[in-house]
Design goal:
mainly alpha; rod-shaped; binds zinc ion; transmembrane helix; membrane; transmembrane
């Protein structure tokens, strides 16, 4: 059984949720009747949420630099080892 939420604007047929056309008269669906519109809306909202999260994270790092730890690279270890010998 398929989900039929929208009615066709031309013939009033109960259209399936998936697909770009009416299953009865083959007329094109309206934009808000297509699943792709909702998928895109969710993706845009998710991208906006991730963007806000990233911006918030970088703001915290700028506001609290004392939490940053000194990074020790392989070069530092080799340099210290050579100085000792
Ligand atoms: Zn139709």
């Amino acid at each position: 059984m398929s989900i039929r939420v929208f009615h066709c604007k031309s013939c009033g047929h109960h259209m399936r949720l998936f697909g770009g056309r009416c299953g009865y008269c083959r007329d094109r669906k309206l934009l808000h009747q297509r699943v792709i519109s909702y998928v895109l809306a969710v993706l845009i909202m998710a991208a906006a949420g991730i963007y806000v999260w990233v911006v918030t994270q970088s703001d915290n790092q700028i506001a609290a630099p004392e939490h940053q730890t000194e990074t020790v690279t392989l070069f530092d270890i080799v340099h210290e080892t050579l100085k000792l010998n």
